[in-house]
Amino acid sequence: MQPAACDHNRTQIIARRNGIDYVECLDCRQVFEAEDLEPVKADEEDE
Ligand SMILES: [Zn+2]
C-alpha cells in the first residue's frame, strides 16, 4: 500500500504520444501525463 499523498518526485517517461509525455512515478507507480506533473503555482508563497 502506498501513502495517500505522493509528491511524485521521481518519475520516468514511459511513452510519448501526440506531443504528450506520459510519465510513471517510481515511488507509487502511477502513470499520468507529464503536464499534470507541473506543480501548480499559487499566488501565495509559503516561504
Ligand atoms: Zn508518486
Report on the structure:
By secondary structure, the chain is mainly beta. Strands 1-2-3 form a 3-stranded antiparallel sheet. It has one helix at residues 34-37, and strands spanning 11-17, 20-25, 31-33. The protein is flat and about 35 Å long. It contains 1 helix and 3 strands; from the N terminus they run βββα. A hairpin with a 5-residue loop joins strand 2 (20-25) and strand 3. It has one domain (1-36). Zinc ion (ZN) binds at residues 6, 8, 25, 27-28, 30.
Ligand kinds: zinc ion
Instruction: Summarize the amount of helix as a percent range.
Output: under 10%
Count the helices. How many? Answer: 1
Within the largest sheet, what's the order of strands?
1-2-3
Portion of residues in beta strands equals 25-35%
Order of helices and strands: EEEH
The secondary-structure class comes to mainly beta
Query: What number of domains?
Result: 1
Major sheet, described briefly?
3 strands, antiparallel
Features:
3 strands; mainly beta; three-stranded antiparallel sheet; single chain; 47 residues; binds zinc ion; 1 helix
Per-chain topology:
Elements: E1 11-17, E2 20-25, E3 31-33, H1 34-37
Antiparallel strand pairs: 1-2, 2-3
Bound molecules: zinc ion (ZN).
How do you describe this structure in short?
The chain has 47 residues and is mostly beta strands. The protein has one helix and three strands.
